[in-house]
Amino acid sequence: MLLELENVTISTFDQQRIIVNNVSFGVKEGSIHSIIGPNGSGKSTLAYAIMGLSNYKLASGKILFEGQDITNKTITERAQLGITLAWQEPARIEGLTVAKYISLGMKEKSSAKAKEALKTVNLEPERYYDRCIDDSLSGGERKRIELAAAIAMQPRLIILDEPDSGLDVIITEDFWNIFNKIKELNMTILLITHREDIGMVADYGTLLWRGEHLITDEFPKVMLQYCKKAGLKEYCKRALFKNGAKCFDDDYIDKIFAGVDL
Amino acid sequence: MTDSEYPGEILQSLEDYNIDIRDFLPGHGSGAKLLLNFNKISGIEQVKGIVLKGREIENGIVADVVIKKGTHHDEPIHLCFGVNKESGIQEIFPRIIAEDDTDVKIQAHCSFPNANGLIHKMFGHFYIGKNCNFTYSETHYHGENSGALVAPVAIMYVGENSTFENNFNLTKGTPGIVKIMIDIYAMRNSTIRSNIRAFGKSKKDSIRIRDSIFLEGENARSLIKMKAAARDGGEVLMYGVTEGNAPHCNGHVECNEIVLGKGSICRARPFIRATDPTSSISHEASLGRFPQKWLDELQAKGLTEAEATDILIEAMLRE
Predict the structure, then answer these.
(1) Of A12, A193, A95, which Cα lies nearest the Cα of B195?
(2) Paired strand residues for B274
C-alpha cells in the first residue's frame, strides 16, 4: 500500500465534535481511489488531514506513507515526500503568473515540463502560461491550473479535493481522460467526490457516512453500498455503468437492497 | 548625450522592476525622455506632440511635460530623477499637462542607490484634459541603507470622460523615510485607478502614503488599491481617502498589508466620505499575515512557510 490510514479519528479544532471516527483503509500504488459520501461525511476533512494541514490534526490513529509514519510530519515535509493536494477552491493570487505557480513545486524547473502539465489538463500553453492567476480566469480554468501545478510536481500521490465541484456535467468525460493521463504518469490518485459519474473512473473506493467508514472495495461495489444506504435503488440500476457496461444485474441489485446475504 | 554620460548606477535598479534600462536613454526607442542627474539636466529628447522642457533651479528643476491635443503614443515618456551621491537635496517641480483627446503613458523612475542622508522632494501638478487615457507609473529605489528622506506631493486633475491610472511602486531596496501625498480630483464620467505598493524592510524604514481621490463629477469612478509589507521593524501607514461629492459617483478603497517579524507595524486608515445621496463609496482592509489557506496551498507544493510567504509578498507587490 502506498498510503495507509490506521484508526484515524479527527475532531473539530475545539475537540468538541468528532468529524471522522476511527477510519482505516489503504490506497494501492498506481490506482485511482475515490472517497465518496454525502455532504458532511468528512471526505475533505480526511483529505486535509492526509495532507497535514495544521487545523486538521489527528485526535488518534496513524497515517503511513510507503510504510513510514507521517502522522507528525508537517505539510511541507509530506509534500517533499511526494504527497500533494489539488484544492477544491484554489486561491487567486494576483501577481503570480501561471508559469510561476506551476513551477513552485517542480524539483527541476523547466518551462517545457510546465507547459506539458498544462497540456495534460487540456489548457493551451500559448494562452495560459504567461497569464496571471487573477479574476480573469474562470473557476474551471483555475481548477485545471491547480491540477497542472500538482502534476508538474510529479508526486507519488495526488489528492484531488472535489475537482468536479461547480463545473458543468458536460466536462465529466474530459476529467476522466485527465485522471487516466495522470495515472499513466505513474501517480496515484486519491479522489474526493460526491458525484458517482466522476468517481466511476476509480479502481477502488471508500465510503464515508457521517464520519464513519462503511466499506473499502472495488469502486462499483462501494457505489452500490452508497446507493443502498441512501435508498436509491432505481438510480443504482440506471446509473452504475463502467466502460459502457452495467456494473450489476438488476436482480443482483434487488437482492442487495432486500438485504439478502450473498 | 551618449549612454555613458548618464550614471549607469542610477538606472541599474530599473532591472529589478523588469524595466529595460535602454528605454530611458536618449537615442533608444521612440519615446520622449528627460534625465536628471542630481540637480543637472543630463538629457532631454522630445518627440512629435510631446513638449519636454526643464529649467535648473538651486536644488533641482522645474520641468514641463505637455502632451499636445490629440497625441497618441504607445511608447511611454521616460523621466528619470536620479542621484548617485550619498547626500544632498533634490527638489523637482514637474507640471504635466495632457491636452484633450490624448493617449499616453509616463514611466518615471526615482533612483538614489547610495542614499545616506539624501533628501528628495517633489511638488507635482498634473492636468489631464477631456477624453484622455493617461497612465503615470513611478518606480522608486532608495538604495540599501535606508538613507533617504523622500517626500513627494502631487495634485492631479482628471477631466471629463478621461481614464487615469496611477501606479506607485517602492518595493525594491530599503525605502528610508517616505512621506507621500497624492490628491486626485475626478471630473464627470472619469475613471481613476490608483495602485500603491511599498515594502518597509527594517526599523529604519518608515513609509506613510496618503492617496486621496475626490469624485467631483457625475458618474466619476475610482479604485484605490494599496498593498504593503513591513519586515524586521519596518513601519507602513497607508491612508486611502475617497470622497463622493457628485451624483452617481462610485469609489472603493482596498488596502492589504502584511506584517513580518517582530517590531514591524502596518497600519491602514481608509477614510471615506459621501456628500451626495446617490454616491456609493466603500472600503476594505486586511492586515497581518497571509490567509492560512494561501500558505497551505503553497506548502502543499513543498515550500516552507517562509518560502511561501516570500512568494506571496513578491506576488502581492508585483506591478
Answers:
(1) A95
(2) B244
Q: What is the DSSP string of A175-210?
A: HHHHHHHHHHTT-EEEEE-S-HHHHTT-SEEEEEET
ipTM: 0.90
Cell triple for A33: 481511489
A168 pLDDT band, cuts 50/70/90, is: low
Domain extent at residue A106: 90-153
Quote the CA–CA distance of A34 and A11 in Å, as a whole number. 22
User: Exposed, middle or buried: residue B140 (CB in 10 Å: 0-12, 13-18, 19+)?
Assistant: buried
Q: Do A75 and A169 reside in the same domain of the chain?
A: yes
Q: In this structure, are A166 and A44 located in the same domain? A: yes
Domain ranges of chain B: 3-291, 292-319
Distance of CA B302 to the CA centre of its chain: 35
- Shared domain for A66 and A78, answered yes or no, is yes
Helix (H) or strand (E) holding B172: strand B163-172
Residue B92 CB-half CA count within 13 A: 33
For residues B159-192, b (16+ Cβ closer than 10 Å) or e, as one string?
bbbbbbbbbbbbbbbbbbbbbbbbebbbbbbbbb
Domain boundary among A133, A153, A173: A153
Q: Is A79 on the interface with B (CB under 8 A)?
A: yes
Q: Which residue of B has its CA nearest to A133?
A: B315
Taking an 8 Å cut-off on Cβ atoms, the answer to whether A51 and B300 are in contact is yes
Same domain, A63 and A117: no
- Do the Cβ atoms of A105 and B297 come within 8 Å? no
User: Which residues from A are below 8 Å from B293, CB to CB?
Assistant: 87, 91
Q: How many domains does chain A have?
A: 2
Q: Which of A106, A124, A153 is the last residue of a domain?
A: A153
pLDDT given at position B226: 96
Domain assignment present for A236: no
Kindly state whether residues A20 and A114 are assigned to the same domain.
no
Per the DSSP assignment, residues forming a β-bridge with B80 are B35, B109
Mean pLDDT of chain A: 89
A211 touches chain B (CB under 8 A): no
pLDDT in tens, chain B (319 residues): 555 578 888 888 888 888 888 888 877 888 899 999 999 999 899 999 999 999 999 999 999 999 999 999 999 999 999 999 999 999 999 999 999 999 999 999 999 999 999 999 999 999 999 999 999 999 999 999 999 999 999 999 999 999 999 999 999 999 999 999 999 999 999 999 999 999 999 999 999 999 999 999 999 999 999 999 999 999 999 999 999 999 999 999 999 999 998 899 999 999 999 999 999 999 999 999 899 999 999 999 999 999 999 999 988 887 5
Shared domain for A162 and A187, answered yes or no, is: yes
Residues A15 and A137 in one domain: no
Looking at A21-30, A190-199, A210-219, which range is the least confident one?
Answer: A190-199
Size of interface A-B (CB pairs under 8 A): 59
Residues A77 and A13 in one domain: yes
pLDDT of residue A256: 82
In a domain, A231, yes or no: no
Task: Check residue A170 and give its pLDDT.
Answer: 57
Return d(Cα A249, Cα A243) in angstroms, integer: 15
Asked if the structure places residue A203 within a domain, the reply is yes
